[in-house]
Amino acid sequence: MSLSGKDKSVVRSFWEKISPRASDIGGEALGRMLTAYPQTKTYFSHWSDLSASSAQVKKHGATIMAAVGEAVDKIDDLVGGLSKLSELHAYKLRVDPANFKILSHNIALVVAMYFPGDFTPEVHLSFDKFLQNVGLALSERYR
């Protein structure tokens, strides 16, 4: 699913609004994913605390959202812009790419909770398409 010029504009504008809370969004989204989809805990078994309030979950959530911010900056070439992350997740971390969809769902859910007035149907559509394209770009090295 390709992003139109309008989608890109909507995503960039929305990111400007939500980026100050990106760390909070990431921690909450990752914590929700680990709780609601316990099979995803496999990738974090080396952490002592996988609860949503854990410092490790919050820190990694912030890292994830920093990468989402980079993706917004590279929205015109997500595959090229995210190639190093794709390699890392495919070859070193060996993350099942289905998990990118699960995390994207949780990010969208948390964004909707934090910004209910701004997460209009139009924003939802564009942001969802963007997250789907990020997931596809991260899955590129699996092919």
Strand element count = 0
For the sheet with most strands, the description reads: none
Backbone CA Rg: 14 Å
Helix content: 55-70%
Q: Return the structural class.
A: mainly alpha
How far the N terminus sits from the C terminus, by CA atoms, comes to 18 Å
Q: Residue-averaged pLDDT, rounded?
A: 95
Q: Give the overall silhouette.
A: globular
pLDDT below 50 for ≥5 consecutive residues: which ranges?
none
Give the SSE order as H and E letters. HHHHHHH
Strand residue content: under 5%
Please count the helical segments: 7
Structure explained in plain terms:
The protein has 143 residues and is mainly alpha-helical. It is built from seven helices and no strands. It has helices at residues 5-18, 22-36, 55-73, 78-81, 83-92, 98-114, 121-138. The two termini are 18 Å apart. The model has no long low-confidence stretch (mean pLDDT 95).
Task: Explain briefly what this protein structure is.
The protein is mainly alpha-helical and 143 residues long.
What are the main properties of this structure?
globular
Strand-helix topology:
Blueprint: H1 5-18, H2 22-36, H3 55-73, H4 78-81, H5 83-92, H6 98-114, H7 121-138
